[in-house]
Amino acid sequence: MWKESFELIDFHTHILAGVDDGAPDIETSLQMLSHLTQQGVDKVVSTSHFYDFADDIGSFVARRDEALYRLERHIKEHDLYLPDIIPAAEVRIYAGMWQEPQLERLCIGDTRNILLEMPYDHWSDWMYSEIYSLIAKGYTPIIAHIERYVDMISTKEIENSLLTLEVMVQCNADFPSLRHERRFVKKLLSQGRIAAIGSDCHNMQSRKPDVSQAFDYISRKFGDECLEYIMKNSLALLI
Question: What digits encode the pLDDT tens for the residues 9-39?
């Protein structure tokens, strides 16, 4: 069975208590992690929102790391079997971020791979320039929830511009239930463009940690090899 043959990674989560609009408390964090454990998930990337207009990197990282410390201490004290947690951030793109001396602190774990959130209405020229500059500086941008930009990317100009960028893309695990987005993600899957899958979970009600529907869909439509390829790419982005 595919769940036993390679590691499963939820690449996009908001599980840390009180850091952003995700889990409000440790109890919810534990419920979310437990739910992912039941789906066979081995590793979770914690990607709390970072907005440069609302926070500075130092204070954000301090709050994030404190929340992670409290959560991991609770897990250890109660001897709970839950997925490993890798600290990161979902960073809303902003002008000049490539010059930010502390930007590496927002990257995934100890890497220089960074999860970028793009705007939903219009991608300006400066944003492409920013991504190019990040790449030139040695960062690997990963575009978060790529399926949300389907209407923009479907225009030839945007699609061609995106495909020429040396970026990775992550899609959210609810895409199989979204008809319009599903067609777009299937195209990217067939092109080998999807590097990671994430639940983008925020709570246990409206935005639950559910990756199994995406994993099952990919395995059924594209084969276990495709899912394994994505998971191995995801793992490579963590180290």
Answer: 999 999 999 999 999 999 999 999 999 999 9
What's the total number of domains in the chain?
1
Element (H, E) at 75: helix 57-77
In the sheet that holds 84-87, the strands lie side by side as 9-13, 43-46, 84-87
Q: CA 4 to CA 200: how far, in whole Å?
A: 23
CATH number of the domain enclosing 46 = 3.20.20.140
Range of the structural domain that residue 232 is part of: 2-236
Question: What residues contact 60, with CB distance under 8 A and at least 6 apart?
Answer: 48, 50, 89, 106
169 contacts 188 by C-beta, under 8 angstroms: yes
Predicted TM-score (pTM) of the model is 0.95
